[in-house]
Design a protein that fits this description.
This protein has helices spanning 10-16, 29-45, 70-82, 93-103, 113-123, 204-219, 259-267, 278-288; strands at 5-8, 53-57, 61-62, 88-90, 127-135, 140-149, 155-164, 187-195, 229-237, 249-256, 298-304. By secondary structure, the protein is α/β, with parallel strands linked by helices. The chain has 2 domains: 5-18 and 176-318, Rossmann fold (3-Layer(aba) Sandwich), CATH 3.40.50.410; 29-164, 3-Layer(aba) Sandwich (Rossmann fold), CATH 3.40.50.10610. Strands 2, 3, 4, 5, 6 and 7 form a 6-stranded mixed sheet that branches. A hairpin with a 4-residue loop joins strand 5 (127-135) and strand 6. Helix 4 (93-103) crosses helix 5 (113-123). Residues 11-31 and 172-181 have low confidence and may be disordered.
Length: 319
């Protein structure tokens, strides 16, 4: 925890203000057929072309990077459904695995332009079906899916669905292992803490854009010719609609690789009164998040607001 970098953006804002047991999918296929089919239908409806498209369906990894049979099960189910569309040519899974191993990419759901082009060139595919999984309450799992053009990494269509979870994860579910495998790529962990008190009126949109540009810059960075795996967590603080007992602080998202969800939540935030307890907010992010214990991981906290750090009982330097 002592090696997490803390970056304060207060002055910047002011100056610029002008053991895996997988349940077999066969017995439960009927249970999840309708939401999966609806998801596939929406993905296909968004493809504005009459020409045949060649598509590779990747595994749908968990947003927190956990090891599970779920990513492969969802990949298989979606492949089976899409293969029934005669306008689509679906790449066989074994061939896809060989190419991904050759590229040392694994079956990641995080696709950047460079990766998309490599897969497209080696497999001769026009697009990639990719996405993420996120467990909900009552044994439900949320699927966020998208079809990405390999030439430009442009999202051609997107959809989501909630299904019954029919598989189990390893005992380390939700944790970032000290020996986690990120397909040979480096890991970047970013915690964004945004002041949503009324003092940010007139500054909030500019601040969101600045924070998101930082995320994009880190996402597009390279090490050994590879873009990193980027995980982002999001907090808001200082909003009077939040609980006083919690210090007017709310964790919106834990570490996740689903940057679309992060962007959606970040840009939906609104200001409303409140007191800004910066020290407490930093302390929560530093201690409550599942930070990697590996020394070669870039770990950083960005806190952005428009008030002094003196409010609250905890000095930010002690957080």
């Amino acid at each position: 925890m002592k090696k997490i970098i803390l970056i304060l953006i207060f002055s910047l804002i002011c100056l610029t203000a002008p053991s895996v047991r997988a349940a077999s999918p066969e017995p439960t296929a009927a249970m999840d057929a309708r939401p999966m089919e609806k998801l596939a239908d929406k993905l296909q409806d968004g493809l504005k072309t009459d020409a045949k498209l060649k598509i590779a369906v990747l595994e749908f990894n968990y947003t927190d990077g956990r090891k599970s049979q779920g990513p492969m099960i969802i990949q298989e189910r979606l492949t089976t459904i899409l293969a029934q569309n005669k306008k689509l040519i679906i790449i066989e899974r074994n061939l896809l695995q060989k190419v991904m191993q050759e590229l040392k990419l694994g079956a990641s759901g995080a696709i950047d332009t460079q990766t998309a082009k490599k897969i497209g060139k080696l497999l001769g595919v026009d697009a990639i079906a990719s996405g993420t999984l996120n467990d909900l309450k009552n044994s439900k799992t949320e699927i966020n899916a998208r079809i990405i053009e390999t030439e430009s990494a442009k999202i051609l269509s997107a959809s989501s669905a909630i299904i019954e979870k029919t598989w189990e994860d390893t005992a380390s579910t939700g944790n970032i292992s000290t020996t986690a495998n990120y397909d040979g790529k480096s890991l970047v962990q970013i915690a964004i803490l945004l002041d949503t008190s009324s003092s940010m009126d007139g500054l909030i949109n500019q601040t969101k854009n600045q924070l998101w540009s930082i995320v994009n810059e880190l996402t597009s960075s390279e090490k050994d010719d590879n873009n990193p795996i980027v995980q982002v967590a999001l907090y808001e603080y200082g909003n009077s609609s939040l609980s006083k007992e919690d210090g007017f602080i709310r964790q919106i998202l834990p570490f996740t690789r689903d940057l679309d969800t992060v962007a959606e939540e970040l840009f939906a935030l609104r200001t409303n009164g409140g007191e800004e307890y910066c020290g407490e907010t930093i302390n929560k992010a530093a201690n409550d998040l599942k930070w990697s214990k590996k020394d070669d991981v870039y770990k950083v906290i960005f806190i952005a607001g428009n008030e002094a750090f003196t409010q609250g009982t905890l000095d930010f330097r002690q957080a």
